[in-house]
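User: Design a sequence. Structure:
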């Protein structure tokens, strides 16, 4: 039984991801030259992109990790709040924070998290996401760096899960409806 059997179509291939990550890494290395870059990975979804992106960045940087859970489920339009489950280890003062995400969906998570991080006196806070689903946006927030815009479909892989599965797919695929409808 292979995970691949549950995928309807491949939306972004391994090769496309690889090329885009290299491009983003090069751009970030240029933009953050001489700065105090810290890559902040929002677990768990960003783990795969983080591992790839950090190796595509050629300037010195540090890394840190955060686990958050956002309230305000899919049926609410309230901005909700973000609960910090695991905070960063490091201090952000004077740092140039680049948040690394797998997907910017409604934007509720990051629209709450960004102001929280800005209160810690960083020099800057920006967002880098490999996937963007602008059609689902509820909060006024845009990525500073993005990989691919995706349609409003059930995407999994490259860190993105359905029921904690499919994160280890090496590409971004669309899940067959029978998987989440059963
Ligand atoms: C997903 C995704 C983003 C967030 C985006 O994480 O990885 O972090 O939701 O959604 P939003 O823009 O609508 O706020 P999830 O909460 O599923 O946790 P996970 O990363 O552990 O899968
Ligand atoms: Mn996530
Ligand atoms: Mg998830």
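Assistant: Done.
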């Amino acid at each position: 039984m292979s995970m691949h059997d549950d995928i309807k179509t491949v939306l972004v291939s391994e090769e496309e991801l690889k090329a885009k990550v290299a491009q983003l890494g090069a751009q970030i290395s240029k933009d953050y030259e001489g700065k105090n870059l810290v890559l902040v990975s929002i677990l768990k979804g960003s783990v795969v992109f983080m591992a790839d992106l950090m190796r595509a960045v050629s300037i010195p940087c540090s890394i840190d990790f955060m686990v958050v859970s956002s309230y305000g489920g899919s049926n609410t339009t309230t901005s909700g709040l973000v609960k910090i489950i695991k905070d960063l280890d490091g201090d952000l003062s004077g740092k140039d924070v680049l948040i690394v995400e797998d997907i910017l969906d409604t934007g509720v998570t990051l629209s709450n998290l960004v102001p929280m991080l800005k209160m810690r006196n960083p020099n800057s806070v920006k967002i880098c996401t490999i996937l963007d689903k602008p059609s689902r946006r509820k909060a006024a927030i845009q990525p500073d760096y993005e990989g691919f815009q995706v349609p409003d479909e059930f995407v999994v892989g490259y860190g993105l899960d359905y029921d904690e599965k499919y994160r280890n797919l090496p590409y971004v695929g669309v899940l067959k409806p029978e998987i989440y409808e059963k």
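Helices lie at 14-31, 47-56, 108-118, 177-181. The chain is about 25% helix and 30% strand.
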